[in-house]
Amino acid sequence: MMLIDPQNKLLQTQIMDLIMKKDPRIVVAKDYNYSCTKLQYKENGRLFLSFTCFNFNEIFSIAGNYMIDKYYKDYTKEDPDVGFHLTFSFNVQSAKEEPKIQKNATEAEKAEIQEIKLQIRAENQKLFEKVTKDFSQIRRNFYASAFEQAFDQINKGQTASKFKYQSRENEVVYAIPDQDALNIFYEISFSDNVDKTLANLIITEIIDAKKNVKMAPPISRSNYQSSILKSAFPEVQNIKVDPNSQLITMTLFKAQHFSKNIEQLSTFLQGFRQYLHYHIHASKTYLHSRIIKRISQFQRSLQLCQFEPEVEKKTEDIFTSSGVKA
Amino acid sequence: MAAAVQVYSDAIRKTLEATLCLRAFPSEIIEKQSKPEIELNGYSSKTRQLVLSPIYLCRSEKEKCVIEPSINSTRISFSIKALDEVDRLIGEKFAKYLAVRADYFEILRRKPIPGYDISFLILDSHLEKYSVQGIINFIIDYVENIDKDLSDIKLNINTQARITAACFVGGLANQ
Fold first, then answer.
1. ipTM summary value
2. How far is B31 from chain A (nearest CA, A)?
3. What does the record give under GO molecular function (chain B) (predicted)?
């Protein structure tokens, strides 16, 4: 099942379950881009989170430390688990323990302890929710960190460095920062004809959407001959262009787009390909269901034109007293 | 729009009424075999008297129909209007889904003839199972509704794409 929510629903439910039940077991969740997340609750009361993806080293070299500082500094960075690139752990026992009501306690003491209990329970709940959020959206945090770092640097007036990473096997994302803007080039490639047609349709609508959305960033189709792209990444001139791929560019400005909420913006940017894929899938499902419905109607109408099978007339044998058939 | 389809469908109805007078006719070439003449030899000097000239009915350049009558079979082929890529995609999908289910339809030809999107092949044996008027009504129903269905699907897909795009761009604009 494909989801576009930044938080992985499976991990979200499993993390809470592991923390609450203190159940020593392993949960592995695989996702697109060959990414994989593993959760393990060990008997020593620690919850381990491991993550890997095919382009891990590329993205980690761009903004790995930024991501750890921003989202995972409260957790312990462990040696990566076998088959994974990054492992964090959280000590579940760091949650406060609820006081017990003693048998000989007075009513006033009981009420006081009850109040403290509720307070601690609420604090623990808050802590566990934070852990759940941080752990379940590790994939989003990892992919978004490159954009968030660039936005932060531009906001602070620092010189952000350009970066590129391979988002899928034959797709690359290029980001070229300016003094007060960030140019992003997405290479999108669909090999299937249906996917390609629907992707084209959605991309055309995205390009046209600026008419209806206030402060929409400029989005357009581009190519490898774009002067901005060529000057930042000269190697694109020699690239062998895949006939199925297309380049989409968007320019985000500091004043309009990333001066306030960079998290939401980064979530959309890192998930653009997944977002496209999800909606293409939705359109295909709709197309399939409509066609199947229409075909079954055709089938029914054809069945209605069949001649009714002739029913054989049943004759009763009647015998008279003389034994002769009537 | 409806009137234009009506003229087109009326023309198809009248042509079908005239051409669907089929009878069992064993092949003159393959002994003791009863094969649809239209499929077997097509138009050749040997079958000149058994296979009539095809009748072309066109509503527009892209939306057309050819009816190929013969003594024991009639082949009817339709081309679905495709103005852009999405139209072509929906039309192709529709024809493909129908072709996969050709066994259930009996009168549907599994592979359409070149240049057309869907072909029906009606044999004399079909007329023993289905009423002629029923088959004609089925084909007319197909002609009259396919256009409407496809534009309806296209409209919904376009609306879906527009909403998707607006959501994404709205998200980028921090709205």
1. 0.86
2. 31
3. actin filament binding
